[in-house]
Amino acid sequence: AGTLNGAFAVGTPDCVSHLAEELPNPRRNIPKAILAQMVIGLFTALFYMIAIFYSIQSFDDVLTNTYTSPLAEVYLQATSSKGGALGLLILIYLPLTCGFFGNFITCGRMLWTLGRDGATPFSGTVGAIHPTHKNPFNATLICGIICTILGCIYVGSITAFNAFVGSFVIFSTLSYIAAILPNLLTKRRYVIPGPFWMPGWIGYVVGGIGCVYIVVFDVIYCFPYAMPVSAASMNYSALITGGLTMF
């Protein structure tokens, strides 16, 4: 069930697609950017994980670490120095901090698009472009406020917060199958071919494998983390996914 770690290591391919309206020739550049992300993420994650595996001296200490993150324990075992472990953690947090800006930009663009199309409350405000900054400032600010409020869940219940965050991969993959499966069922007649169009049976095979993969692993991602199951160790991703979908 460790496929989720690999998925997060390589990265989600949808982030760059949300910036399609701001790129020149997006029909060609967006697929190229997604391909570049997947290839770069594959190699960097592979070498990084190999180094991590060889650095672990006591796997039990990593699993039972309760005073800090498992990664910090791995770095401590690798360097035998708290200062070295801290320095390596800083190298992790710096790109994460830069990634936050990209995430908010992506979320803001998505919310702005919905507001522009009249699909949100107060769509006139949400879908507006700031006259000075020339960007969807309101939508990005709203996303920041909502994310801050959701972060408060962690203070109240770590289990609820982990379930909420863990449901992300299920929601994202369900959005993929919602786009792929109807195209397969309608024999792809409503898809406008682009520069990287998969002709004939190739498109059906790739799309079919993708749909089966999503269905199988979304079920796996709803399994409990350990047996026997308690209220604290239960995986509530299925509850979060079903509840938010009905909401």
From TrEMBL:
It is a multi-pass membrane protein. It is found in: Membrane. The chain crosses the membrane at residues 34-56, 85-106, 137-157, 163-181, 201-227. The keyword Membrane applies. InterPro entries: AA/rel_permease1. Signal peptide: none annotated. This is Amino acid permease. It comes from Cryomyces antarcticus.
